Amino acid sequence: MKKKPGFMTSMTLITTVIVFLLLTVTMFLSNIITFFLIRKGWLPFHPSEPPVPMLLQNAFISIVVGTVLTFFVVHLPLRPIQTLIQAIHEVARGNFQTKIYIEHPREFRELSKSFNQMTDELSGIEMLRSDFINNFSHEFKSPIVSISGFARLMKSGNLTEEEQQEYLDIIISESARLSELSTNVLNLSKVESMTLLTDFTCYNLSEQIRQCVVMLEAKWTQKNITFQLDMEELILMGNEALLTQVWTNLIDNAIKFSPEGSTIAIALTKDDTAAHVSIRDEGIGIEPEKQKYIFDKFYQADTSHSVAGNGLGLSLVSRILKLHHGSVSVDSAPGRGSIFVVSLPLSQLS
């Protein structure tokens, strides 16, 4: 951890000044007390006698005065440290709302600001952890309850063949939802633990996107969706496996929220600074006030749950792109679809 310039020098200076003042005041008070005791006749003084007894008397008085002064003065510089120690104990007990406010000296004021920033971060992390557990429990429990319920109905045997097929389809769909949820959680956990990307390879970005479209063919043909591809041929240096997840999630979302018979357009261009991939659909769109939350874990803009999802795909997309020093943005409005734009810096291109 980097030390702030001059911090230790300033603290050393403060400590030196305090010690110097203590010694000076001790010596001054000791001489005054000695003089007072001699004047009152309570302390014998004979100039003709050897100075050793007098020196011992002065030393004893200095020790007594210095000890008393130190006992009272030492609390002043230690008070901020005691406040900090108490606050650290509170944080150790899990109270991340703890704050300290120390105005003087300047170094302790900066320390208190840093401490408060730390507790704010810890509080935010704790809130995210709690939200993650709650949301994951809900998303995980819903399909299990559904599977269990329809399995019991099928076990009763009082169903027509058409009802059995319908319930089987629901069970298969909910099982796929569970599988997708667990896969996304594992993938997100993996990329969130990464601080540096590895396994860089050179590959054709436009061909990768085409392969992702083909991979999802069963989904878009079922809804009779047409794709329009307008892509330059670009060679990218990046983690191919992770970026495949980016395009798969974005295209899959576009398919999910597009009406039957609509068109999804994908364009790949570049300018002087970055390569840009835009994916435009003709779906239901996203309200402006919800757009800033769509990359948060478990957030779903469609609160009606009319479209299957778990709210992890876009969070995964955002994290992977950050690892590539890229970005993702959305331009959308209710009733006119959405355009997701992914930008990757040209430094990623070979």
From TrEMBL:
One of its GO terms (biological process) is osmosensory signaling via phosphorelay pathway. Residues 78-127 form the HAMP domain. Keywords: ATP-binding, Kinase, Membrane, Nucleotide-binding, Phosphoprotein, Transferase, Transmembrane, Transmembrane helix, Two-component regulatory system. It catalyses: ATP + protein L-histidine = ADP + protein N-phospho-L-histidine. Its EC number is 2.7.13.3. Residues 135-348 form the Histidine kinase domain. It is an enzyme of class 2 (transferase). It comes from the Bacteria. It holds the Pfam family HAMP. Its main location: membrane. GO terms for cellular component: membrane. The chain crosses the membrane at residues 12-38, 58-78. GO terms for molecular function: ATP binding; phosphorelay response regulator activity; phosphorelay sensor kinase activity; protein kinase activator activity. It is found in: Membrane. InterPro entries: BphY/WalK/GraS-like, HAMP_dom, HATPase_C_sf, HATPase_dom, His_kinase_dom, HisK_dim/P_dom, HisK_dim/P_sf, Sig_transdc_His_kin-like_C. CDD domains: HAMP, HATPase, HisKA. This is histidine kinase. The lineage of its organism: Bacteria, Bacillati, Bacillota, Clostridia, Lachnospirales.
